[in-house]
Amino acid sequence: MDRRTFLRSSLALGCSAAASPLATPMAFAEVPGDRRLVVILLRGAMDGLDVIRPVASPEWRAARPSLAADAGAGADLGGGFALHPALGALAPLWQAGQMGAVHAVSTPYRDKRSHFDGQDMLEAGLGSLEEGLRDGWLNRLVGQIPGARADLAYAIGRERMLILDGAAPHASWSPEVSLLLTPQGQRLLEQLCERDPLFGAALEEAMAVAGSLPEAELAGRADHERLADFAAERLTGAARIASFSLNGWDTHARQDVALKSALSRLAETVLALRGGLGPAWERTAVVCLTEFGRTFRENGTGGTDHGTGGAALLFGGAIRGGRVISDWPGLGEGDLYAGRDLLPTRDVRAHLGWMLSGLFGLSRTALEQVVFPGLDLGADPGLLA
Hints:
By secondary structure, the protein is an alpha/beta fold. Helices cover 31% and strands 15% of the residues. The strands form three sheets. Strands 3, 4, 8, 9, 10, 11, 12 and 13 form an eight-stranded mixed sheet that branches.
């Protein structure tokens, strides 16, 4: 899509339109203050044991004879962990304290290992599916911040963005029609809308969004980089919260190839965010989440299957990085969950909750009762600088 490809809002009519170079769901929200949060959903179940590798574990090496073959190639993270070589471009962020990880974590989802249910649990932020998927935790977050606005909320693509669904005001956008606008066509739209303040304002905003990333800037950029460029451009304006997805993490076979490709795209996305945010990067926290981890042992096709415990990745100038934070359970036969998976020792929502508390000043009560209902936050892991 180019900057003249317009997307009609599902929450407005007539001249309300916006454009984007992206082809993946994305959400934004305006909140008071100067700190920023970016939530990247890694759809498909990222293998945390291959991304943040417990290289000091003889059990890990024995259970993954092919996947651990290049165990000495990644950056040393300390504490017996090493970084997957495909994230080597991000090692300077680790050294600068702008990259970190939490390990042996998961949502409360257990045993069935369905991508769909796991992603719903992750985006809803609930303790069980039985509670009902009424809204997403980012939407509930926005509703708890005084003066917050969610009128810059976009879902670009037809996929549902549960993480921002809910009662707090937001706009969902989906591609309905593509228009190639000539200057005359743009002027006609302006004339049609100029007598209606609502539609006129919507058109003005749409044109501003459409022109925010000139086509020349997008030339030669991959989709994930264009996505990050657009997100950074909005976050350097009024938006303070963004969420979008990266796919390609389901590595049942030839994980050495598939995961390398996915991690390379993630590294390029993070570096594009940093470049686009400029000085705002110092006040930004990026958290990368996935629906569950993968099996401890590699399978017969050089991949791994759906598991339980995994890792979340953190980036940005607002985080206190250079650390793998974990209550590490071990990888011995008796240490594994159900004899097959990394055992989760902490709810990933607790890490998210403490991050939200530091970024936006939410109380423990609001986090445990509203944003993540029923959660016990536990001790503060000190994720923020």
